[in-house]
Design brief:
This protein is 76% helix and 0% strand. The protein has 259 residues and is an all-alpha fold. It has one domain.
């Protein structure tokens, strides 16, 4: 009984399984879409453009874009999965059943964010497997790659949870992924090295937090990065801490959850 009061494992698993069941109902669409999209990226960027470009930092262009392409998908899916996961209970009114259940705020966040991160990591692995059909991929630091992937999935799932709580309509739900995250990713060195930019624009790019995420993730593949891997890791940890602080404030104040 004391253990259940400390941590309600059954409650966490119930929410987690419910979210994963929703993912399984659309499994074909969830997997087919990234495979087709990844293939198109390699046809356009890898073949059409990559054939006219030389190596980037000693890496073929097709292989160079793999980490950025993977991160673009993980960012987007983490945000979408987590935001929709918490927004739908708000929209239908079932969020009050969750809030009145014998589960703590930590357990609610753990279940929703854990499910969203699981989905995005699975999707990232599918994209990685698809990319390996087009270009040879060698991961120099597999443990760091897994750590970066997990950290990014958790961080952006938390950001998606915050966006889902903040959103009051489906239009707002798509605002952050479409108008903020995607442009930041394309301007963050996903498909090029920021060293290829003029000095002024390279300096401007260093204010884009996505640069540090993609740079650190690319380092885990090829051992090359636009910024130091330690700086990238620190930036990701700060972002995770910021998201955790905002989630704590949401449950502390009941912002758009209890009203």
């Amino acid at each position: 009984m004391n253990r259940q009061r400390l941590f309600n494992l059954y409650g966490v698993l119930a929410i987690y399984r419910f979210e994963m069941a929703r993912f399984r109902r659309t499994l074909w669409q969830s997997l087919a879409t990234p495979v087709i999209t990844t293939s198109l990226y390699f046809v356009v960027f890898g073949s059409a453009i990559g054939a006219r470009m030389g190596d980037v930092d000693g890496i073929s262009y097709g292989a160079f874009i793999v980490p950025g392409l993977l991160m673009l998908s993980v960012f987007t899916e983490s945000l979408n999965n987590a935001s929709i996961g918490i927004y739908l209970p708000k929209f239908t009114g079932t969020i009050y059943e969750v809030l009145s259940a014998p589960v703590s705020a930590f357990e609610i966040v753990l279940a929703y964010v854990g499910a969203a991160a699981t989905k995005s990591i699975l999707l990232g692995l599918v994209i990685l497997g698809t990319a390996s059909l087009f270009v040879p991929i060698h991961i120099q630091h597999p443990l760091w790659m897994a750590a970066f992937l997990l950290l990014v999935a958790l961080s952006f799932s938390l950001a998606g949870f915050i966006a889902g709580v903040w959103s009051q309509g489906f239009e707002q739900l798509q605002f952050i992924p479409m108008l903020i995250i995607t442009p930041m990713t394309f301007l963050g060195g996903a498909f090029y090295s920021i060293d290829m930019l003029p000095p002024v624009w390279r300096t401007v790019s260093l204010f884009n937090p996505v640069v540090y995420v993609i740079s650190g993730f690319r380092w885990s593949f090829y051992g090359t990065a636009d910024v130091g891997v330690g700086i990238s890791l620190m930036a990701m940890m700060l972002f995770l801490l910021l998201c955790l602080t905002l989630v704590w404030l949401i449950f502390r104040t009941g912002y758009r959850l209890k009203s």
